[in-house]
């Protein structure tokens, strides 16, 4: 009987409990070589190519494009080639094999990193340690959650495929999907980009056939008979206002949005937030200036004045870590969800360096090539929501950080000055901090230092 080996989904970084299948690079019955691309998986951070742990025949694939696989669950089965060189059983395979076992084991390296390098992952225990990305117990097993790719504009595709189409400037509504149930795959987008048949703006998007909508949403119920104030027996009845009926259907969160939901719930459960608000007066600014760069410079100045808010706090052990450097997490809103890349060493960057760093991070977020290491480890964060709308907010502090700054929409306000009134351009600032780690006085002094730097001429 052939020796069948089962490959289990490794931890693709930072204790994420699951990942979504984007595209298989093989099919059942194919022969694959050791370390050749096996499958592309979408995590909360990026799209990761998982390499094959064996040289041999692929006998079974667990799940299809769009399915969510739990970390540690069966991903694929192989019949290793007895004549080919395989990794020794005692050698680090670069993956966590097998379901979680009760006995603890030493940490191994996972080579399936979106950076092309290695990331740490433990073999796992019967009770997984909380990695700080999910609240409560996480039940792991071999069950595959079958979920369909989301349908937007009549096109079924996972978020990573839509991101790839955007990167290649491909109109995804004009791409013919070859996946199951017409799902558009990575290869479909690549083919369309290569032959130029679906360039953006080349032609109107295809119309969605009437029959296509039937499997994307439930059939709407037939209208109920009109109600009257008289019953069938001819007697007056008491009527109620018509109920509101929803025509949509629930859709499972995946990838970035799935992780965002976990992180926000964890933050809500573990932080004692307090918010201070005030306005930065920009009237003294000379000439046109980079607003975001000025914001970051002001945050750095405030961190140097009051280091207590440029810190991490461990609520479990009640320890605080003050940082000598300033790494700022900058919230970036995308269709797939919220990313927070880190602008490293902001305290030693000038205005040009800050702008170049922000543009690099945004480009990497938009095409989903940003390394997972750039999405964690920041010491304080910034949400520049005023680019869209809103004056004040209560931004969410994500542990282990102690504080987040929110910048609202600029406005021209009437302000009182000595001898009269003037119209000044002002920026609303919101500071949310974890009151367990910082006092109200420290937060107020931090906010004052930030406002003072913003109000300087240049």
From TrEMBL:
Ranges of compositional bias, category Basic and acidic residues: 82-94
Pfam families: 2-oxoacid_dh (PF00198), Biotin_lipoyl (PF00364), E3_binding (PF02817)
Sorted UniProt keywords: Acyltransferase, Lipoyl, Pyruvate, Transferase
Assembly description: Forms a 24-polypeptide structural core with octahedral symmetry.
Species of origin: Dyella nitratireducens
Name of the protein this chain belongs to: Dihydrolipoamide acetyltransferase component of pyruvate dehydrogenase complex
Similarity comment: family membership: Belongs to the 2-oxoacid dehydrogenase family.
Statement: the UniProt record of this protein carries the keyword Acyltransferase: yes
The protein's Enzyme Commission number: 2.3.1.-
Domain of life: Bacteria
Residue ranges annotated for the Lipoyl-binding domain, each copy included: 4-79
Acyltransferase listed as a keyword: yes
Taxon lineage: Bacteria, Pseudomonadati, Pseudomonadota, Gammaproteobacteria, Lysobacterales
Peripheral subunit-binding (PSBD) domain location: 156-193
Region called Disordered, residue ranges: 80-130
Reported cofactor(s): (R)-lipoate
UniProt enzyme class: transferase
Matching InterPro entries: 2-oxoA_DH_lipoyl-BS, 2-oxoacid_DH_actylTfrase, 2-oxoacid_DH_E2_comp, Biotin_lipoyl, CAT-like_dom_sf, E3-bd_dom_sf, PSBD, Single_hybrid_motif
